[in-house]
Design a protein that fits this description.
The chain is an alpha+beta fold and 224 residues long. It has two domains: 82 residues, SH3 Domains (SH3 type barrels); 97 residues. It is built from two helices and seven strands; from the N terminus they run H-E-E-E-E-E-E-E-H. Strands 6-5-4-1-7 form a five-stranded antiparallel beta sheet, with no helix packed on it. The longest helix has 123 residues.
Length: 224
């Protein structure tokens, strides 16, 4: 397990004020050695208090002794000791970096899949919106055609109403003329009947006169 490391110049001060000195820490890691012994002092003569910290272990650097080449460190379980500075590196070892890179790659792949899914979703929504736009445009075109037809019918209706009014006036005049003709025909019929009656009477009178004249004419003798 990799742990965060911190730097300090006094062991006692670090133990008492570790939280106040967090901004001055320096990260360090066990290098790619298999095991690094942790000693009680800054030289190989001091006793070993830990048989060997595995490579990749993260430590807090408390102090560095340039003369001896040792650094005082603290483990994650608060175990304090010295080890050779040459075994410390500022960056995680390759194996840990590889694991971190693999984890980052997994996260990146996950993010990429999520992004592709989002793109597919947005594309689908865009397609649906485009289809709706086409449908709405078709509806608008149909409504415009219907509106034009309504306007045409309305205009025709106005013309028809106007024509109906004209025809009504003409019909009224024709009815008046028809009534006049009917009255004239009735009068003419009455006159015709009177004339026929008078002619018939005259003919009858003429026949009577003719018969009377014939009877009044003297008859000749068969011998004369």
């Amino acid at each position: 397990m990799i742990l965060k490391c911190h730097i300090n110049h006094a062991n006692i001060l670090l133990l008492g004020l570790a939280s106040l000195l967090a901004s001055t820490v320096q990260a360090a890691y066990i290098s790619d050695e298999l095991r690094v012994p942790l000693r009680s002092g800054p030289s190989a003569e001091y006793r070993i208090i830990h048989k060997g910290l595995p490579s990749g272990t993260q430590l807090d650097i408390l102090n560095t002794d340039q003369a001896s080449g040792f650094s005082e460190v603290m483990t994650s379980d608060n175990r304090q000791g010295w080890l050779r500075t040459q075994y410390l590196v500022e960056q995680p070892i390759a194996r840990i970096r590889l694991l971190s890179t693999a984890d980052d790659l997994k996260k990146a792949n996950k993010a990429l899949r999520e992004a592709n899914t989002e793109i597919d979703t947005l594309s689908q929504r865009s397609l649906q919106q485009e289809e709706r736009l086409i449908e709405n445009k078709a509806k608008i075109d149909a409504l415009e055609i219907e509106l034009a037809e309504i306007k045409r019918i309305s205009a025709n209706t106005l013309d028809i109403n106007k024509n109906n009014l004209t025809l009504t006036e003409i019909n009224a005049r024709l009815r008046e003329e028809l009534d006049d003709l009917s009255e004239s025909h009735a009068r003419l019929s009455d006159n015709t009947e009177n004339q026929m009656f008078m002619i018939g009477g005259a003919l009858l009178l003429l026949g009577l006169i003719t018969g009377a004249l014939i009877k009044a004419r003297p008859q000749r003798s068969a011998w004369s």
